[in-house]
Amino acid sequence: MKKYLVIFATLALTSCGRFSNKEQQQQAEERVVCLSKQYNEIIFALGAQQNLVAVDLSSTYPPEIKKLQTVGYHRALSAEGILSTKPTMIIHDNNVGPEHVMKQLEELKIPMMVFKTKGDDIASAKALISEMGDYFKKKKEADSLNAKLDAEMKAATDAAAALKDKPKVMIIHFGRANNVYLTMTKNSTAAKLIEWAGGEIPLDGERGMMQLSPEAMAKSDPDVILLTDFGYDQLGSLDKIKELPGVAGTKAAKANRIFRVEEHDMVYIGPRTGEIVLRLQELIRKNAAQ
Description:
alpha/beta; Rossmann fold; five-stranded mixed beta sheet; 10 strands; globular
């Protein structure tokens, strides 16, 4: 613990002792570290990112967020990495760790903020956008984002209601933390998106993801396979993707209905969810007649 107190004290003294009055004033301004991909997208959508100095590795949208310093994976943080950004506020969604690092940061009395709303369905995502809009004094922007989300979700659900069939869709994700391919289950955010788009994920599971297995893939026999960006790009071709466990024998593989999606589009609900559902709707219907 002394090690982290020394680091924090050194950073504080450094920021106060060697700069002009103007620089000291800049150092005294709010410096926000946000450790939630959902929160970060909303912050940028609100236009409230001016005090954001660092994010976690999983925060990859919008593209300009990649210009900010990263402080590690949100479940494998280090106190040193966060303290090096001289934060005056840490915002997170409680899905952070390890526990001893968060305890160290609390003991250093760095203010932390967790928004009350979970944002895990459309209604609560809108409530979260409104809550964050109030916090960042961007109420008008929040109202505009929610109106756009409503309009796009209505367009998507109306279109889905007119469809006669529900294609089975499997989503494969490469888990970089544990270096394995995973499939998303009915108990995932992605399943909600696919359902709103007019499809269904056929795989049951207590968790949102489970390790990809030939048995699960063969049993599900999906009409469409969606592979998130990192895994798709790592494999690089349809032939390589078909080498994944159980994939080659599926309807999706035989019809070449395997498509790339962005991970950050599939794992949380936010301001772009309506447009994402509309895009998924087009994707899972692509080449359906072939």
